[in-house]
Write a structure and sequence with these properties.
- Helices cover about 40% and strands about 10% of the residues.
- It contains ten helices and six strands, in the order ααααβαβααββαβαβα.
- The N and C termini lie far apart (about 40 Å).
């Protein structure tokens, strides 16, 4: 493993169980280039999330515990928001608009009371891998790291997810997320799979198929049918 990758992973630790499954990716030239690019950007100015949180989704939801996957795009790019989980923000941070819509659908779907925080760590600990397509971003500049190689890395993550032996539900909001899974499927699924698709929860598209899609109840029904505990979606 190149020294730049070792140094990157010291600052941004990757859960050892995921690291074992992704060992070949971590040795690829593109991943070394990605590490150098992110390190250079951090030297030039703020990059989100903080180094320690880049792989926090993997630490909170190890592979054997994954029961659901929710895919985002890239991290929030404003201060104090991103902490390594797709759609999630730190406690006390105002809810971004997409997350507000996710909560509206959760309440309508399950009849749960409104959430008091935008932090989705309880979902991650319940088995929901909340992963973005791209894992870092420059402050104030959405998609600024989109060409660094993160997509190749997360494609590899999706191939691993598809081949896990346990039941796994994939919740894919928007065309970009749906294409991501299509690109990653190159082998039979390892266990039972649910692929739930709908419009993205952003304000621009939520009324075009996200509201009323009932992803939360459908995921839990699928898990129960396949002998796995439901997520519950409590916050």
């Amino acid at each position: 493993m190149e020294s730049c990758v070792q140094e990157f992973l010291q600052r941004s630790p990757l859960d050892e169980r995921w690291a074992a499954l992704l060992a070949e990716e971590l040795e690829q030239p593109y991943f070394a280039a990605l590490c150098r690019a992110v390190t250079a950007r951090r030297a030039a100015g703020p990059v989100y999330p903080p180094e320690a949180d880049v792989f926090s989704a993997f630490a909170l939801t190890p592979p054997e515990q994954v029961r659901c996957v929710i895919l985002g795009q890239d991290p929030y790019h404003e201060p104090e928001q991103a902490h390594g989980l797709a759609f999630s923000v730190r406690p006390g941070v105002p809810l971004p608009r997409s997350l507000r819509n996710i909560y509206k659908e959760r309440e309508a779907d399950l009849g749960l009371p409104p959430a008091q925080t935008g932090c989705l760590i309880p979902w991650a600990r319940a088995g929901v891998l909340l992963i973005n397509t791209v894992l870092t971003v420059d402050a104030g500049q959405a998609n600024s790291h989109a060409k660094f190689g993160w997509q190749t890395f997360t494609d590899a993550v999706f191939r691993i997810l598809w081949q896990l032996p346990q039941p796994v539900a994939f919740v894919l909001w928007g065309k970009q997320a749906q294409v991501k899974l299509e690109r990653a499927i190159d082998a039979p699924a390892g266990g039972p799979r649910l692929v739930h698709t709908s419009a993205h929860p952003s304000p621009l598209s939520a009324k075009r198929g996200f509201f009323g899609s009932r992803p939360f109840s459908q995921v839990d029904a699928f898990l129960r049918e396949n002998g796995a505990p439901p997520i519950g979606w409590v916050l």
